[in-house]
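Morning!

This is the sequence you dropped in the shared folder:
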Amino acid sequence: MWRVLLVLIPAAFGLAQDESGYTIGKVLGGQQYAASALWSRDNYLLVSDLPTGKITKVDGQGPSTYREDIHAAGLAFDSEGRLLICDPVQRYVIRIDKKGRTEVVADKFEGKHLNGPNSIAVSKNGHIWFTDPAFASADKQRELPFYGVYHIPPKGELTTVARLDTRPNGVANSADGHTLYVTDSDSRTVLAWDVDKSGNAANQRVFARVHNGVPNGVHAGADGRIYVAARPLLIFSPAGQQVANIELPETATDVTPADTDQSTVYVTARTSVYVIRTNAKPEKAK
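The structure's back. Tokens below.
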């Protein structure tokens, strides 16, 4: 049943359809704070429970413990299948290869500790972007005078995309790699930048404003739409117009696609993880 749940979403697992026609089901519960989820091409889902430092793996056999020693706020795979993790407690970004070897990718900028890396995205050609806000008590401990959006090229040093006075949260790269999206929790906006072939970001702008909750995780869909975890799950057109408001039993925290089915996304929401079949059709920006 678990394999069918992850890929085909059977009605037998308590799925319901909301008024907009989106199919919603619960995948996992019992989390203290489900901060992030990540789908693997090897047909399993990773779910991070930030306060407990536990990452759960959900596959055809059901849920099992993947790691118990990492406070993961953000998860991403690179093209080699290595797992990148934002750990705001340790204030670094790490990378774990398939043999379990761990390396620190970023922990300081200009000689000062990062605030608390939160969300991470990796492009198809190996560029890494991550946000570095400072939530809760971390704000009192920060050494940097700004909240950052960072870029690490495949061969090069850590640089800032933006030095903000407000706190960035989720980050996503568009399917074509030409646009970077970042949610800003304080201004309740989704910011966007143009990205060139070298990974240089320019033309910062407000892509959309969020009027229903605080924007958290973000996903740039292959269908051209932008998915934002706020209080509900919000979906925006490529032009920045809100086209869907999907209510969940709990406040959404992150959203990630199932690579095998781009019409399906997984949404972490406080203590649980939900699966949503969006049935979205591709749109083009006007």
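Headline: Residues 208 and 240 are 5 Å apart (CA to CA).

More detail when I'm at my desk.
O.
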